[in-house]
Amino acid sequence: MIKHGRESLVKIAGGEFVSKEPLPGRSMSQKREWLARQQRAADTIQKLHEIGNDAYGVPHIKSIDSRRFCVLEERVSGVPLTPLLFRKLDDNAREKVVDSLAQFYADMHSIDVIPNPIEYKMEYGLDVEYLENFLEDVEQYFSKKEIKSVRDEIKFIDRVYQHIINTSYETRIVWVHGDLFDGNVLYDYKTQKFNIIDFTDAGTSFLHYDMLRSYSRDLGVADAVRTQYLKYRDVRDLPADFVDDARWKQIAQYHNAANVLEKMNEEVTDVQYLGKNERSKMLDRLKQQINVLHKHARGF
């Protein structure tokens, strides 16, 4: 028996299946919410099976027992397709992964699409509250000498932040996996295909956000996946800010910079509880992140 994710216990059931149950100690309302998420996952998986794309695999749901709060799901093969594993694959295998991932995105995004494009403001998806407070109160945590060494960089961080929160672009709301990371993408060396599991977070999100802040970014192939993705979708149904190459690269740059800011936010979350030595080490780590930010925020 193993804990699976944040909410389920998973057991091997007869070799061909796995059974899922809510984690122990959950209230009845939490169990019902768990069951609703499993049903949503099953509905999404069913729609993918109806599409019938064999470029990737998704498990079949054999049964959902609403009385016992138990799901019986097909057990799929493979090992987590981590960025390290991806880099170790040969060129042909990597190209196949990129193409299959593009097809998976295209199929997911076709399940439930709100037809009209919308304006997405990047401030909505940027969670850097601790970083904002840190920049305002930085003099409380460091000596004048330390602050002097990073004063220009602090101004740079603030300039990038202001640029991002004032940026918007046209996108669409689409149906997404919701938790696509290497733990949910299992690679089979024999078939050179991957199986995707755990659709319990499936729901709506933004087209650009899904492709730029998700698994394809972790693998470092967001641009390549988007290029292939355009081959599988009618570009007339896609927003201009997604189809246009120059605009796509600009938006990708904004999201990459936003990702660095969020990592900085995690770094400074507990700054007020750190001792002097720990704060000094934290400042060194921030400087490393600032170097990365310069790479992604050229021209800001």
Plain-language structure description:
The chain is α+β, with helices and mostly antiparallel strands and 300 residues long. It has eleven helices and twelve strands. It has helices at residues 28-51, 83-88, 91-111, 129-136, 144-165, 207-212, 215-219, 222-232, 240-243, 245-267, 276-296, and strands at residues 2-4, 8-13, 17-22, 61-65, 70-74, 79-80, 118-121, 168-171, 173-176, 185-188, 193-196, 203-206. The strands form four sheets. Strands 1-2-3-5-4 form a five-stranded antiparallel sheet, covered by helices on one side. A three-stranded antiparallel sheet has the order 6-10-11, with helices on one face. The chain has a two-stranded antiparallel sheet with strand order 7-8. A hairpin with a 3-residue loop joins β1 and β2. The radius of gyration is 22 Å and the shape is globular.
How do you describe this structure in short?
This protein has 300 residues and is an alpha+beta fold. It has eleven helices and twelve strands.
Topology:
Elements (H helix, E strand, L loop, with lengths): L1 E3 L3 E6 L3 E6 L5 H24 L9 E5 L4 E5 L4 E2 L2 H6 L2 H21 L6 E4 L7 H8 L7 H22 L2 E4 L1 E4 L8 E4 L4 E4 L6 E4 H6 L2 H5 L2 H11 L7 H4 L1 H23 L8 H21 L4
Antiparallel strand pairs: 1-2, 2-3, 3-5, 4-5, 6-10, 7-8, 9-12, 10-11
Question: What is CATH's topology name of the largest domain?
Answer: Aminoglycoside 3'-phosphotransferase, Chain: A, domain 2
Terminal-residue CA separation: 50 Å
| Low-confidence segments | none
The CATH class of the largest domain, by name, is Alpha Beta
Residues in helices, as a percent range: 40-55%
So what's the overall shape? Answer: globular
- For the CA atoms, what is the radius of gyration? 22 Å
Question: What fraction of residues sit in β-strands?
Answer: 15-25%
**Helix/strand order, N-terminal first:** EEEHEEEHHEHHEEEEEHHHHHH
